[in-house]
UniProtKB/TrEMBL annotation:
It holds the Pfam family Peripla_BP_3. This is LacI family transcriptional regulator. Coiled coil: none annotated. It comes from the Bacteria. Residues 10-64 form the HTH lacI-type domain. GO terms for molecular function: DNA-binding transcription factor activity; transcription cis-regulatory region binding. Keywords: DNA-binding, Transcription, Transcription regulation. InterPro entries: HTH_LacI, LacI/GalR-like_sensor, Lambda_DNA-bd_dom_sf, Peripla_BP_I. Signal peptide: none annotated. PROSITE patterns: HTH_LACI_2 (PS50932).
Amino acid sequence: MKAKPGKASVNLLTVAREAGVSRATASLVLRQSPLVATATRDRVQDAMKRLGYIYNRGAANLRHNRTGTVGLVLPNMDNPFFGALTAGVEEANDLLGTVCFIANSGESADRQARQIQRLREHNVDGIILCPAIGSGPDLVGELSRLRLPFVQVLRRIPVGDAGGMTGDYVAVDYGRGVAQAMERLVESGRRRIAYVGNMTAHSAGRARLEAYLAFARRFGIGERYVVSGKPDNRYDEAAMDRLLDSPDAPDAAICFNDVIALDLSHHLRRLGRRVGEAFAVIGMDDLPQAAAAFPPLATIATRPREVGLAAARRLHARIERPDLPFEEDVIPPRLILRASFGASAAEPQGG
């Protein structure tokens, strides 16, 4: 083994010589290029460790007019769903060598605007954004004008009447998930299916409701079983109680998310109704609390970690190739049937 030089003299050429490769190959390893064989990559990385080589990422970023940072702006960090999404973003960023600034808009468009301004002041290379309720098309227009790469995730800000793509977008196929749940409920003999927690202030909420109403019309269920909800994950309990006391009381419910579904399940039990027998409940998201609930909650898994991974990769691609056509990634949901669906529920279902 060659003698180790002092730290002051350790540069990429020193590493290359220690590993027995060219400086160009060592540079490819630093940039995580797939062109380098695994054995060669390991040899270069071992040499870096032995020599104490520290990559001057700041200088490299300056050469490429980059900071190696991105912003992630989410509307409700209290919701465990967004924690899982953030984990997916960070997993991808770790592999891509990117650092992430995370901001919580609290469903405030004004606060969101301030956060985006601060992220710009930090010269982030791009932004992943789940738009707050009330976000207008001027936000998308401003980001586009500034040529700041961005990806909208889960929700999309409507721009113009044509409804064309105005940027990269990563979403969940909420409509497909609701349709799967409705089909299974009807197959099981349920005919009075409520939709609990309806919120149409953003595109993800509208997609859920539209899918429910389309299926309800198809099976003659009508619209009387729609119960409103709020961004703080509460639903109109009084309206639900009126439905439960009516002659044609619902015998099942699909909920906006798992938080509302768990709350509804607790409420039904307080009223003496046996969840999974007299009344079927299905949530959405498959939070960890869903499987641990009593009875375990049937749910539409929306795969937040995969959403985060896809969004981070999409943003990275946009940063690398800003002039590429806009892309849309749609994550398929998965229906998971547990005891709150019925005693014969088998896990998993759907795809």
